[in-house]
Design goal:
47% of the residues lie in helices and 10% in strands. It has 384 residues and is an alpha/beta fold. An eight-stranded mixed beta sheet has the order 3-2-1-4-5-6-7-8, with helices on both faces. Helix 7 links the parallel strand 7 and strand 8. Helix 8 packs parallel to helix 12. The chain is globular. Belongs to the NAD-dependent glycerol-3-phosphate dehydrogenase family. Keywords: Cytoplasm, Lipid biosynthesis, Lipid metabolism, NAD, NADP, Nucleotide-binding, Oxidoreductase, Phospholipid biosynthesis, Phospholipid metabolism.
C-alpha cells in the first residue's frame, strides 16, 4: 500500500521569490522554468549553448525548442553553471539522462550545501541501469531526503501554452516533496505528492517504451484496437516491472504511470511516439536518431530496462519486440500479433502469480479513486 501522509503533516512554507535553478534549456527544461517563474519563484535557467542562453535572456524566447512561446519577463538565463546555481535553494535538472552523471560532476562545486535536487528526467543510465535519483545520490554528497523526482503527463509544448495539467512530485521525504510541490504549481500546473520514488521514476521511464511500440504500429497503419491492446498490456508490463523493484502498484495507475502513458502514446508531440512511427514506416534506428531534434529517452532505455527485467524474472514481451524492431530483426508489421506471448496456450490477463494478484485489484481500485477525485474537483488525500 502506498505510504500516506500523517493527518496533520508539517507542511513547509515557501516564501515568494525563492531562488531556484533549472539545468537544461530543451523543451521540458525551458517549460519547467516557465512553470516555476509563473508560480512566483526567482528562476535562472542554464543553457549549455551561450547563444541559446542569450536568446532566452534578451528576447524571452526559445525558438529552437518552444517556437512561438513567450517566456516570463522575470525568467533569467545563463550559460555559466556557477551563476545559474548561485544561491539556489532548489535545483531542477533536465538534461539527457545519459549525460546526467558528467553534468552533476561539473555542477557539484556550485550546488548549495542544503539545496534540494529535483529530477525532471525520464530515463535510466545505460551503463549502470540506475534511475536518475540514484545517479544523483551516487554523484552528489546528498541524502535521499533532499532528492525529488517529478513525473506525469507532461508534454512540454502543451504546458508552455498554459493548457491545464497535473504532475506528481515524489521524494522519500514527504516534507521535501511538499516543498517542491509548493514551488512547482500555478494556475495551469497542479502538483500532487507521493513517497514512492521507485514507482514514480520507473513509470516515467517505462511509458516511453510503450509509446515507441504505439508509434511503430501507428507507422505501420494499424488502428485503435491494436493500440488500445498494447496500451493495456503495456500497463501490465510497467506495473509488474516496477512492483518487482519495490514500487507500489497504485503509483503505476496514477499520474506517473497511467496518466503519462495515455499522454505519451496518443500525442504527436511525444518524441517517443514520433520515433516509433518512423520505425514503423521502415526507417532504421540510426536514421530515426538523425531525424530527431532532441534526445528520445525511450530508445536509450530499451536495453537497460530489459536487462533489469531479466534480473528479476519479469517478462516484458512488448518491450522485447521494440528491441527487436530497433535491432532490425523483427518486421514492424509483426509487433502487434505478438502482444503477450508466442505460445498458443491461453494466458492469464495478469502476469503476476496468485500470491500477488491482490495488486491488480489495488491498481484498478486506485484508478476508480482517481476518477472520483477528479469528479469532486481534485479534493482528496495527499498522493496521486
Amino acid at each position: 500500500m502506498t505510504p500516506r501522509a500523517p493527518k496533520n503533516p508539517k507542511t513547509p512554507t515557501i516564501k515568494p521569490g525563492t531562488r531556484v535553478a533549472v539545468l537544461g534549456a530543451g523543451s521540458w527544461g525551458t517549460t519547467f522554468a516557465k512553470i516555476l517563474a509563473d508560480g512566483g519563484a526567482d528562476v535562472v535557467l542554464w543553457a549549455r549553448r551561450p547563444e541559446l542562453a542569450r536568446e532566452i535572456q534578451e528576447a524571452k524566447r526559445n525558438s529552437d525548442y518552444l517556437p512561438g512561446i513567450n517566456l516570463p519577463i522575470s525568467l533569467r538565463a545563463t550559460s555559466r553553471l556557477d551563476l545559474a546555481l548561485a544561491g539556489a535553494e532548489q535545483v531542477f535538472v533536465s538534461v539527457p539522462s545519459q549525460s546526467l552523471r558528467e553534468n552533476l560532476i561539473t555542477a557539484e562545486p556550485h550546488i548549495g550545501a542544503n539545496a534540494i535536487i529535483v529530477s525532471l528526467m525520464k530515463g535510466v543510465e545505460r551503463s549502470t541501469g540506475l534511475r536518475m535519483s540514484e545517479v544523483i545520490e551516487q554523484v552528489l554528497p546528498i541524502s535521499t531526503d533532499r532528492i525529488a523526482a517529478i513525473s506525469g503527463p507532461n508534454l512540454a509544448l502543451e504546458i508552455a501554452k498554459e493548457q491545464p495539467t497535473a504532475a506528481v512530485v515524489s521524494s522519500t521525504s514527504l516534507e521535501t516533496a511538499q516543498a517542491v510541490a509548493l514551488l512547482a504549481r500555478n494556475g495551469y500546473f497542479r502538483t500532487f505528492v507521493n513517497t514512492d520514488v521507485i514507482g514514480t521514476e520507473f513509470g516515467g521511464v517505462l511509458k516511453n517504451l510503450i509509446a515507441v511500440a504505439i508509434g511503430i504500429v501507428d507507422g505501420v497503419g494499424y488502428g485503435e484496437n491494436t493500440k488500445a491492446s498494447i496500451i493495456t498490456r503495456g500497463l501490465v508490463e510497467m506495473t509488474d516491472f516496477a512492483v518487482a523493484y519495490g514500487a507500489h502498484p497504485e503509483t503505476l495507475s496514477g499520474l506517473a504511470g497511467l496518466g503519462d502513458l495515455i499522454a505519451t502514446c496518443q500525442s504527436p508531440l511525444s518524441r517517443n511516439n514520433t520515433a516509433g512511427r518512423l520505425l514503423g514506416q521502415g526507417y532504421s534506428q540510426a536514421d530515426v536518431v538523425k531525424q530527431m531534434q532532441q534526445t528520445t529517452e525511450g530508445l536509450a532505455s530499451v536495453s537497460p530496462i530489459l536487462e533489469l527485467a531479466k534480473a528479476k524474472g519479469v517478462e516484458m514481451p512488448i518491450v522485447e519486440q521494440v528491441r527487436q524492431v530497433l535491432a532490425g530483426t523483427l518486421n514492424p508489421r509483426d509487433i502487434a500479433p505478438h502482444l503477450t506471448t508466442d505460445s498458443d496456450e491461453p494466458q492469464g490477463e495478469r502476469t503476476l502469480d496468485d500470491a500477488q494478484a491482490h495488486g491488480s485489484a489495488a491498481v484498478w481500485g486506485s484508478v476508480k479513486r482517481a476518477f472520483d477525485q477528479l469528479r469532486h474537483g481534485g479534493r482528496g488525500p495527499l498522493g496521486d
